[in-house]
Amino acid sequence: MSPPTTHDPICPLCTRPIPPKVPQSLHHLIPKLKGGKGGPTVLLHHICHKEIHATLSEAELARIYNTVDMLRQHPRLAKFTTWVQKRPPAFQSRVSGGRRKR
Q: Region 16-43: what's the mean pLDDT?
């Protein structure tokens, strides 16, 4: 795995670099199931994306948490962000709690 460079994109949730070979995914700020198909997306570490969907329902994401700033303000995601920022960019872990209902 290559070390992060200054050209790597930055995960807007945890603010760590996303090196090319690190698992990553696009997050629809408004879920596709709630009308967000074709809407704005952000590139996140896969672990950050999984934590968002393990924490919030599609309805909550569409109604309240439809910006990166709002996601960061959610108590569980704020705690997760503080924790994951201490890990290297390639860190992966299982997300506890499973997916929430849509």
A: 92
